[in-house]
## 1
Amino acid sequence: MPESSVGNPGLAWRRLLLLGLVALLVVIAMFSRGAHAALLGLLSSAQSLAVDHPIAAAVLALLFAAASAMLVFVSTAAIAPFLVYTWGPTVALLLLWSGWLLGGACSYAIGRFLGRPVVERLASPRLLERYEQWITARMPFGLVVLFQLALPSEIPGYLLGLVRYPFSRFLLALGLAELPYGLATVLLGTGLVERRLGLLIPVGAAAALLSVGAFHLLHRRLAVPRVRIHEG
């Protein structure tokens, strides 16, 4: 099958556009002292609330991260600076990564136990249809990791749940794939809070290259005969 029939260049460009918009907002905050001061004031107010209600704040952050792994319109980029400012990079990474694992597990469970009608209400039916012909319970583990790296986080969980891919292998693949994105998100949040352009640029570029590179590598892999994909 030709690569163009399994790929979706529009998806790659949309991801680049989103990264570009985030970068633009970061640049504005970095080079505008007023914008950065306003950001720090907002983070300080949010931190005060978190200090007064630490358990509730941590649970809300965890649930927000989980929702970002299940719903296309929720992004943890919105709370990364708050997590870093409030708890520091290590705890911020732990909250993000744990939340993404929780959200992935929930999307898997929805796909497996509630089925396609519910999944289509939560994820793009067009993306589901595009990739479902390649997803089976016998997919090689490495391809599942690549699948997680390349696509929006809400898609793989639903599809792998629908085909009943082994849950333990799914969760391990998800954890491995989300770790570099979690590190990048925390470093970007740190760079934004501390106005460290030397940190923002290389980390942002590396995250973009990983995302787009994984996307194109996935579609090159999907272009080979199906028997090779299933047998690894």
## 2
Amino acid sequence: MHIRSKISCRVGLISAITLTALSIPGVLLAQGAPRVDTDSVECLPIEDNGLAWATVENNRPDTQVRLNFRRLNDTVEDLYWVEMHPEGGGRYWGIFPKAADRVLDRHDLVEERANARDEYRWAEWWRDKQGSDNRNPNGDLDDELIRERASLGKQLPRQWLAEMDDQTFQDWLEQLENEPAEFFTSVHDATGREIARSKTRVVEVKENCRPDLTPQQRGEAENLTVGETAHWQRGEEVFHWLCDGVVSRIGPNDVKRGDEVCRACVIAWYQVPGIILPTATGLAAGGSLLVFDNPEQLPASLGAP
């Protein structure tokens, strides 16, 4: 009788602990890791900001959601990121920097192969670059630059490329107006460790693309903090993205700083003697011009040193 009572007590205690644990949100979340999916993007505008959306399931309060992006360049595969913002219901949005006007260089595969058709040589070049350790299929690119900057690119599989057959991929390359962009969403814990990642998508950069941004998103576009993923990105422009709107950077060591490259361009422009700036009312509305002969006269909001 005494033994049976002890067993009943222990069973009751275990049940109480289990019920208490299940009532804690952190334990419920621990039952499943975060999952993230990135929406496809119709297009990115040339020299204007684009918008991306993602959905995160089983997320935790202490995480950071990032929009990771790079241009599809033949030699340089520089990856950057910006923080995404919660909209509610697990939805997040992020702002791309303004894409520079860059033509995608053509590289027809020169190596003779029995299974390669002449009309797909451009597509075959990209497949070779993606699928092998040789990041320079024709041997005509900057090998030193590739050695420095291609390691991250090799680690990011282009799932979108595998989903196209040779004909579709070649046709897509032929009709491109500009270097496209690749992007994905990742979730990071409080230490910066990546705990979830979506598949990589590709989006065209077009002249006639007009994303509809809210005032909040426009405000974010004018005050972007861009994260770096490699040491060589410090002191360099965001590769094939414009400075306009980029105000700060976060290095691979997670230290935030002012953007020394983009800010330097702005300050240099302001230091031209006899700077002429329109007033806030604007010339179209009948505003006047303000002339600054000394950069120290510039308002702090305009980036005066």
## 3
Amino acid sequence: MFKNCEKCERTNRKKGVKIKMKFAVTTENNKVFQHFGQCKEFTIFDTEDGKITNKSLLDPNGVGHGALADILKNNGVSLLICGGIGGGAKDALKNAGIELVAGASGDVTLAALAYLSGELKNNADIQCNHHDHDNGHSCSGH
């Protein structure tokens, strides 16, 4: 998995190894959506050697919260870039083997490019607490 490790990238380039990666960005109106569990669309980026080779959209068909991790995994995604995310969803991504970069905002393509250049890093302090908690919903419950 590509983890923005410059030493690994240099070694692989010397060996002629092409580094391929597929990652997703939570999306709404071409901006990074701020609540992973309610995301209605993901922008999927295919990359090779740190460059975007394809960009597409993925509709999770109304599935939410932790189940989104399985949809991403089943679509070959190895990393998720998002705004906010709850603890249960973080665990679901980890269990699915999907790396997380939380705390992003702005244009989805610019966020993807910032990640690829090493400028965008995970903010481990991001914890879901900004959405509606009606009907007994709590961040710790998903």
